[in-house]
Write a structure and sequence with these properties.
single chain; 252 residues; mainly alpha; Four Helix Bundle (Hemerythrin (Met), subunit A); two-stranded antiparallel sheet
């Protein structure tokens, strides 16, 4: 009697865990749907809507990892490669969609220069995603992370010349291959609480910018730059700090 009750309870829990794991994977996969609707919006000239789809995809990407660890998806659904699913969706939402928007919205120069610039971003980021050391064991990104959605928004609102925009994209594409460590906001332990709090405030500012497109006030844009500056300074400091012991060992 007790054995049957235990077995039934165990089976129910197993089914619930399986259901939860599939829900998490479907949640991650919803980013691909956001990318599709974003592409449709770009081709229709609805750039604010396209940026809103990028925001939605970013929310999914920022939260699905926590849910995946909570649902123990690797243990419950070992046949589904969660990191690969995440990378495919991230490439669509953080690389392909923003580059398409930049290309179609006139932010880049006309003709072959625009095509070459877009190709540089697409190909460099592709190699960034497949790099064996793209993420370190102590939770850093290596090489410029694919924050092209953020780059696209700032270039879209900044009003810089098309040539300057192309130059910025080419430089950042090159930084993908420079093995500098960048903070993984939700997982890098150093100052994680501060980073997450500032990140939430910054996310609210970004949403405000997107909702006000195409007319965005300069103070709003400038205030939103505080977090990116903090992020790059923190990444640089932590990169130097973690690189020192390696140089010391090499010297001996």
């Amino acid at each position: 009697m007790h054995l049957q009750s235990y077995t039934t309870s165990n089976t129910s829990a197993s089914h619930l865990n399986l259901f939860s794991a599939w829900l998490v994977h479907l949640y991650t996969a919803s980013g691909a749907i956001a990318a599709f609707f974003g592409v449709v919006a770009v081709f229709s000239g609805r750039y604010r809507e396209a940026f809103l789809w990028m925001v939605a995809a970013t929310v999914v990407d920022s939260t699905d990892g926590v849910l995946a660890r909570r649902a123990r998806v690797k243990e419950v659904l070992p046949a589904v490669d969660g990191p690969k699913l995440d990378d495919i969706v991230d490439y669509l939402t953080f690389v392909f969609l923003p580059v398409l928007l930049l290309y179609r919205s006139g932010v880049l120069p006309d003709g072959s220069v625009a095509l070459a610039t877009a190709a540089a971003v697409l190909v460099s980021s592709l190699f960034g995603f497949v790099a064996a050391d793209a993420k370190t064991d102590d939770h850093f990104f290596t090489g410029f992370p694919s924050y092209w959605n953020v780059v696209a928004l700032y270039l879209y609102v900044a009003g810089l010349s098309a040539t300057v925009n192309a130059a910025i994209l080419v430089v950042l594409s090159g930084l993908v291959f420079w093995r500098v460590r960048y903070v993984y906001p939700t997982r890098t332990p150093v100052l994680r609480v501060v980073t997450l709090v500032l990140g939430v405030v910054w996310a609210a500012l970004i949403l405000a910018i997107v909702l006000r497109l195409p007319a965005v006030s300069t103070p709003l844009v400038l205030s939103s730059l505080v977090f990116p500056i903090y992020y790059f300074v923190l990444s640089a400091v932590l990169h130097v700090r973690t690189a020192r012991p390696q140089r010391g060992v090499a010297a001996h």
